[in-house]
Structures are given as C-alpha cells and as structure tokens.
Amino acid sequence: MTATSPDDLRAAAEALATGVAEQTGERLDFSPASLGVLDAVLEQWRDLAGTYGDERPPDLEALVGPTAAYLGEVLIRSLGGCWVTEPDAPHVLLTGRNRSGEQPRAAVRVDVVRIAHESLGGGAGPAFAACFVAVRDAVDGGPAAGT
C-alpha cells in the first residue's frame, strides 16, 4: 500500500464495507464487533477460493489495503486517534482515552498494513477481531501484542 491521504484511507474502508454488504449481505458498521464479521467473511472467501481454485493458496493480496483501512478506521473510531501517512506505510496513532476514561500513558502506533498482510497471508486465517482486543489492551496499559 503506497502512501495515501486519511480521506483516501477512509474511502477505502467505506468501499470495503459497501462491497461486503453487496456481496454477502453482512453489514460492517465500523464497530469492534464488525471485525469478527469481517474475519468470518474473509475466511469464507478464502475457503471458496481454495475449493474452486487450484492447489495454490488463494491470493488475498488485493484485500490488504482495504482491510488495513477498515481495521484502522475501527481503531480510530473506537479508541481515538488518527491516520499518519508515511512514504510507504500509513499507520494509526492511537491517542484517545482508554476504557477507564484516562489518557493512555503514551500514544500507541499500530501498523495496520503489516497486520492485514500477515492476517490475510497466514495459514491461521483472518484475525482482525483478536487484533482489536490486543490493541485495546495495549491502550489500557496491558500487553502490547499485535501492535
């Protein structure tokens, strides 16, 4: 994913949500719970590609950018933060309040593109919902896994 503006990233996330709704009837509403829906839809697509494709694992590379944008938007909307664009790697910088209503001790940087790439390319399947929990826990001062 090349550097892009926050508006472009939001548009990519919206386009993914619209495409999922049109193709599956599932609604992605940018809530943390919708990441579980996204995981399930992506797993179904991966299974279908494996069933009707050839012996190679399905290539979900085209979905890295849109799923990274969607994950980033869920994190920003739920935990407070912003997009930071760099030459080759937009990421999310979470600076909002944690579940206790307190400011986090430090901003939490989340490389959503790396997370999307690893999640879509790995054998275990998509894990965006689990990633949200790990990031939320990091914002709350717990372990920083998944960031």
Radius of gyration: 15 Å
Distance between the termini: 18 Å
Strand content bin: 5-15%
The outline comes out as globular
Low-confidence stretches: none
Largest sheet: 3 strands, antiparallel
User: Helical residue percent?
Assistant: 40-55%
Count of helical stretches: 5
Number of strands: 3
Question: What's the helix-strand series?
Answer: HHHEEEHH
- What order do the strands of the largest sheet run in, or round the barrel if closed? 1-2-3
The overall pLDDT, averaged over residues, is 82
Description:
With 147 residues, the chain is mainly alpha-helical. Helix content is 53%, strand content 7%. The chain has five helices and three strands, in the order αααβββαα. It has helices at 6-24, 32-52, 64-79, 112-121, 128-139; strands at residues 81-84, 91-94, 108-110. A three-stranded antiparallel β-sheet has the order 1-2-3, covered by helices on one side. A hairpin with a 6-residue loop joins strand 1 and strand 2. The longest helix is centred in the first third of the chain and has 21 residues, at 32-52.
Topology:
Layout: H1 6-24, H2 32-52, H3 64-79, E1 81-84, E2 91-94, E3 108-110, H4 112-121, H5 128-139
Antiparallel strand pairs: 1-2, 2-3
Briefly say what this structure is.
By secondary structure, the protein is mainly α. Helices cover 53% and strands 7% of the residues.
